[in-house]
Inverse folding.
């Protein structure tokens, strides 16, 4: 796997998936576009959007990269009791609960400094941590399933898993954030 | 390795890079907030943003993962210019990044036109996407390769570095070069 590093070979492996994911992201953009007025009305939520989506994608991509290499090296078994699998899943949720409080307070603080925040710090913090927790669970699920499918179909996880996980987390990030905002704000 | 040990190792390796990416993401959010005037001038640009930023992550994340796996397997040396494989991987990343950016701009134009929404000309969107893609691509390819090599030589696991580096650099450079590309295209095109 992954020993042919010529431009043509990499492009053939990568481009179809890349173009499909680009269409998914355009869909994500349409969701964002439909909430544009609400975002502009609450500057701290606007600042929260890229960092929430990016951090969710990161949680997934770190997990995906670790699992991909474990697959390459043959050190992971796709069973519920596998220590590598379970340990990485636990770490992903713990990482989310560590960084999302910083994300929430950071977004509120920066919005206050630049454009002026309309929402209070506790509201923005609650929105960030709730979204982050839900997104970390979804990131584990999406990464596990995608790595397993790539492994069973004998696709190179490096070409397939990270792009799929990151893009699905992007779209889920937009959707989860607005569900949480609709419920909590 | 027990679950607890595996979790602790993954957490410790993930946290510093993830914390750095939070900083980058917040910075990108502030820059995006400053581009509200540009979004008003170029209809469809906001819809295009997730696709353009994701393309950076997709293409250069894949490049980083490929280089990281190559280092693990002993396929590449952690030095620039040591191996023609690395050049092939970088050229493929740039080519695919530009193709996806162009595709995203065209798709955004077609979808918004189909929905009957106001949208800038397809040439404006494609020009912005290509210029932003080229500028950020060159910077990101160099950043990813150099940081993964430097991290590997100092004993960090390159896998844990790649995702956060690409997302952090991708968000910050992606938004910064998008701003530059929009202003340049508007200036040259006189839109």
């Amino acid at each position: 796997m992954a020993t042919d590093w010529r431009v043509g070979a990499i492009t053939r492996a990568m481009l179809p998936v890349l173009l499909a994911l680009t269409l998914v992201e355009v869909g994500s953009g349409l969701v964002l576009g439909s909430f544009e007025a609400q975002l502009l009305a609450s500057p701290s939520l606007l600042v929260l959007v890229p960092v929430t989506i990016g951090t969710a994608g990161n949680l997934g991509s770190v997990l995906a990269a670790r699992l991909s290499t474990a697959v390459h090296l043959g050190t992971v078994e796709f069973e519920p009791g596998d220590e590598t699998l379970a340990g990485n899943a636990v770490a992903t949720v713990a990482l989310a609960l560590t960084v999302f409080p910083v994300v929430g307070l950071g977004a509120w603080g920066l919005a206050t400094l630049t454009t002026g925040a309309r929402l209070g710090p506790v509201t923005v913090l609650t929105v960030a941590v709730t979204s982050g927790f839900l997104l970390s669970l979804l990131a584990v699920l999406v990464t596990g399933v995608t790595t397993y499918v790539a492994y069973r179909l004998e696709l190179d996880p490096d070409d397939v898993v990270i792009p799929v996980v990151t893009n699905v987390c992007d779209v889920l990030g937009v959707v989860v954030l607005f569900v949480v905002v609709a419920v909590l704000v | 390795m027990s679950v607890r040990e595996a979790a602790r190792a993954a957490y410790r390796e993930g946290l510093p890079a993830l914390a750095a990416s939070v900083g980058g993401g917040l910075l990108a959010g502030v820059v995006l907030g400053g581009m509200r005037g540009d979004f008003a001038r170029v209809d469809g640009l906001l819809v295009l943003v997730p696709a353009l930023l994701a393309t950076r992550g997709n293409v250069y994340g894949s490049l980083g993962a490929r280089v990281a796996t190559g280092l693990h397997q002993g396929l590449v040396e952690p030095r620039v210019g040591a191996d023609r494989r690395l050049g092939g991987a970088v050229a493929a990343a740039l080519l695919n990044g530009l193709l996806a950016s162009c595709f995203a701009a065209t798709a955004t134009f077609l979808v918004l036109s189909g929905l009957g929404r106001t949208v800038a000309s397809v040439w404006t969107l494609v020009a912005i996407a290509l210029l932003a893609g080229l500028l950020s691509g060159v910077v990101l390819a160099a950043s990813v390769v150099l940081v993964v090599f430097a991290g590997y030589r100092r004993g960090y696991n390159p896998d844990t570095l790649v995702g956060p580096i690409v997302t952090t650099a991708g968000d910050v450079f992606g938004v910064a070069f998008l701003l530059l590309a929009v202003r340049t295209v508007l200036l040259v095109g006189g839109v």
About this structure: Chain A has one domain: 7-184.
